[in-house]
Amino acid sequence: MSESSQESNQKQHIDKELLMESLKNDNIENFRSEFLDLHAYDQASFFMELNEEERLHVYHFLSPEEMANLFENLEIEDDEYSDVLAEMSPNYAADMLSNMYADDAVDVLNELDKDQVVSYLTIMNKDSAQEIKELLHYEEYTAGSIMTTEFIAIAANQTVRSAMHILKSKAPSAETIYYVYVVDEDRTLVGVLTLRDLIVNEDDVMISEIMYDRVVSVSVGEDQEEVARMMRDYDFLALPVVDFQNHLLGIITVDDIIDVMEEEASDDYSKLAGIADLDSIDRNPISAAKKRLPWLVILLFLGMFTASLIGRFEETLDKVAILAVFIPLIAGMAGNTGTQALAVAVRGIATGDLEKEKIMKIISREAGTGVITGTTCGILVTFIVYFWQGDLFLGGLVGISIFFALIVATLAGSLVPLIMHRLKIDPAVASGPFITTINDIISILIYFGIATAFMSYLTR
Amino acid sequence: MSESSQESNQKQHIDKELLMESLKNDNIENFRSEFLDLHAYDQASFFMELNEEERLHVYHFLSPEEMANLFENLEIEDDEYSDVLAEMSPNYAADMLSNMYADDAVDVLNELDKDQVVSYLTIMNKDSAQEIKELLHYEEYTAGSIMTTEFIAIAANQTVRSAMHILKSKAPSAETIYYVYVVDEDRTLVGVLTLRDLIVNEDDVMISEIMYDRVVSVSVGEDQEEVARMMRDYDFLALPVVDFQNHLLGIITVDDIIDVMEEEASDDYSKLAGIADLDSIDRNPISAAKKRLPWLVILLFLGMFTASLIGRFEETLDKVAILAVFIPLIAGMAGNTGTQALAVAVRGIATGDLEKEKIMKIISREAGTGVITGTTCGILVTFIVYFWQGDLFLGGLVGISIFFALIVATLAGSLVPLIMHRLKIDPAVASGPFITTINDIISILIYFGIATAFMSYLTR
User: Fold this and answer.
1) Span between the terminal Cα atoms of chain A, in Å
2) Residue B180 at interface with chain A, using a CB cutoff of 8 Å
3) For chain B, which domains are there?
4) Considering only residues 120 to 179 of chain B, which have any Cβ-Cβ distance to chain A shorter than 8 Å?
5) A10-63: pLDDT as tens digits
6) A Gene Ontology MF term for this entry (chains A, B) (predicted)?
7) What's the rounded Cα separation, in Å, for the pair B413 and B409?
8) What pLDDT digit, counting tens, does each position of B328-339 carry?
9) pLDDT tens readout for residues A314-344
10) In the prediction, which pLDDT does B7 show?
11) Are B333 and A232 inside 8 Å of each other by CB?
């Protein structure tokens, strides 16, 4: 019930039929009066459903500035930007790009070939081109790469009245007018105040009296995940970005941080599932298989290695075939425990909680956890196997194997990503299936090692 | 480098030693002048490091209103709220709760016993108690449960001047003043405008002329995940919450949505890893084991079931021990593929992409994906086993088993969560290890089924 009502809430805003009709009849006035009244996200949703011919009409109907607004909200695959831009005349496209917020324009340009970028920047208006060029320099996933330069900065020796005056004049181009940054003559960041502060204070009050001078800022090379964490903790709507001399370079707004959070969450999740990229939509089986096969093939070879290890115990298996029955159980339990420990460690790294702890403390806690889960599951298995097979020794063998396998798997699951993170190695390698396969191997070695050593007791 | 600079950026704001000294020397003025200058998040971080005696000083030094600000930013375990509140006098605690934003107060009260809630609500100021009582009614994880009632509403027949007047008077208590909602005499939501709109327009302009009348709103029973999705798509700083007659009930601000996104991402991630709760920090092995054991025990029984299935093929295994060697490979590959498909489906459900598709289209795409990955891995395995064991029939057997196992595992991984979601069953059951274990069972049945049927060809 709530869902359908929600849909109607959303749908009532777009009169698609009217829009399509005006498009087809070339009725520019009807189209514009309806279309420009929509939220940019709804404009973009409508635009994405059009075919190329219809889109050509839209470029004709909208100014580059109006198109910029729509384009910032476009959700298409990274490799499609180039195609859509190619539909526009180069001047129109360049004009549109220079009318976009600099950070969004940079996101689009980052998906194009270098030649295309250069050609758009050449015909673009000089100021925008300069701004964009500077932003293009910053490394991906840093604060610099997601910041925008369209912020409002004022001087401390102004009054509220003059600050409001500046704010009104900059309102059309600034990405947010709710935070105003205070800088000195060198553009050093000295304070911040919100529009709320400006509104509730009298016109003659000096900015220096009401500004907050302990500004929380991020440096331009900071990891975007850390920026997201600060935005979450401080509940800001924007964060200032500074260089090492504390000069204000740009701001990062909360809407961009929401996208970063989605991206980072999706990234952690993909790694745990062992899949290359979950962000883009699978349109057909081939594109889906392309993303899954690389990991599967690697895991296949690891699996063959596991198989060859078991192969070494063929003699043991030949004599006591019942041993094979418990291989998936032991390997599976080790894999499950390892994945749990991995998930805890990766989330701990992501939220910063684990950073604060000493590595020895984590090791001892995880070892303790492994002992508790190992003991519980080990004892449980021993009894189940004993009652099922009537063989206490076999039960004990499987139980003890699970005991050791769970301890080692817990430690491996938590320590591998942690150590890799501390060594600044990309933890992508420590993905879920990888840890699972490693733990398969370890647990099977433990199981067959013990079984082979005590072979003579396995009376069958 | 960037990290250390970041830390100094953050740390320079808090002079902990000064604060601790003023606390110990009972120097209330020094403490207040330093402490109240901090961002509420930094106040909360400092507060969390104190022991009980020191915290009692803080309650003495700060007014309930000042404490409310800190308390909203407190990041402690859910079960600790009750202890911290018990340290305060009941009147102080009630006063503080009534000074908190209603949504944050509700979050805290939700963690207390019913008796405690009632007693706080009784001594609290009537208006706040009424507001909080209404919010307490909404079901968890709905828009109603995360909304706040401290919004600014105006009438359409006002001027910009009078709207700004209302805004200034409500600024101290409203959770955001950047969005102003326009309602008619019945409190029906008819429009919205931003503070930016108010600022750039002349004082005499009527609100009805500049307001945006196609308001995007959510209904009060809407799932919080859907609310987060809309906030992300539309880049709003707040969303209005309405009932079925479109009466404005409250607003949801972006900072709360960031917390929802974290919670939902963490939730999806926990399910994939098969772990109960990743949000709270594991302080010791016992609390860690408590969260992991429930799943492990369930999986243990499922694993025993897998073992009993293999047990039925003991005769086959007795004759051809080499078959056991490939059990982990086949089960592992099926588990990995299933987890990948599960991850794609769960993310697709979370982002809403899969909602738009017909279920038959998804089935055929996933089946296609399974055929491609199955064929690739199947052929690869056939050759590897052939070259390793010199037995083409054995290679073919393992290859064909992998081919079928991958197809079934891909379908199971994607369809189980999808069907459960459509049937409105909690998809928590379809967690990663569960799907993995199901796929273990299916793949082993396929493998031993084929092996037993063609037993006579397995010449060893």
Assistant:
1) 62
2) no
3) 13-138 (1.25.60.10), 153-263 (3.10.580.10), 285-457 (1.10.357.20)
4) 142, 164, 167-168, 171-172, 177-178
5) 444 677 888 888 888 888 988 998 899 888 888 998 998 899 999 999 999 999
6) magnesium ion transmembrane transporter activity
7) 6
8) 899 889 988 888
9) 888 888 888 888 988 998 899 888 888 888 8
10) 39
11) no
First to last CA, chain B: 63
Q: Which of B228, B418, B296, B424 is nearest to A265 (CA)?
A: B228
Q: Is the dihedral of CA B17, B21, B22, B23 positive or negative?
A: positive
For testing the chain A interface, which of B167, B336, B379 should be mutated: the one with the most A CBs within 10 Å? B336
**Which residue in B5, B258, B300 is closest to A333 by CB distance?**
B300
- Judged by a CB distance cut-off of 8 A, whether residue B360 touches chain A is no
Tokens describing residue B422: 């459509």
Helices A327-351 + B432-453 axis angle, to 10:
150
Angle at B372 between CA B367 and CA B376, to 5 degrees: 145
Q: State the residue for tokens 């004082």.
A: B203
User: In angstroms, what CA-CA distances link B103 with A238, B16, B129, B235, B265?
Assistant: 22, 30, 12, 21, 21
Q: How many residues does the structure list for chain B?
A: 460
Share of chain B above pLDDT 70, in %: 92
The residue of A282, A300, A394 whose CB has the most chain B CBs within 10 angstroms, and thus the best one to mutate to test that interface, is: A300
Residues 112-131 of A with CB under 8 A from B: none
Nearest to A216 by CA among B15, B12, B2: B12
* Long-range pairs, B387-391, Cβ under 8 A, ≥24: B388/A304, B388/A308, B389/B322, B391/B459, B391/B460
- The encoded tokens of residue B202 equal 């002349």
Q: Do A108 and A71 meet the contact criterion of CB atoms below 8 Å apart?
A: yes
Q: What confidence tens digit (pLDDT) does each residue in A196-220 have?
A: 999 889 999 999 999 998 899 999 9
How, if at all, do strands B189-194 and B179-183 pair? antiparallel
- Only one residue has tokens 């102004």, namely A158
- Please give the pLDDT value at position B277: 65
Nearest-Cα distance to chain A for B285, in Å, is 4
- Tell me phi and psi for residue B324, to 5 degrees: -60, -30
Q: Do A336 and B295 touch (CB under 8 A)?
A: yes
Q: Which amino acid, B388? A: W
Give residue for tokens 């860690």. Answer: B288
For the purposes of burial, counting CB atoms within 10 Å of the CB of A390, is it exposed (0-12), middle (13-18) or buried (19 or more)? exposed
Of A131-135, B177-181, B421-425, highest mean pLDDT: B177-181
Closest CB to A273 among B218, B343, B384: B343
CB A75 within 8 A of CB A40: no
pLDDT tens-digit profile of B366-383?
Answer: 899 999 999 999 999 999
Q: Say whether residue B356 is in contact with chain A using an 8 A CB cutoff.
A: no
Task: Give the CA count within 13 Å in the CB-facing half-sphere of A430.
Answer: 23
Six-digit token string for B322: 């080499």
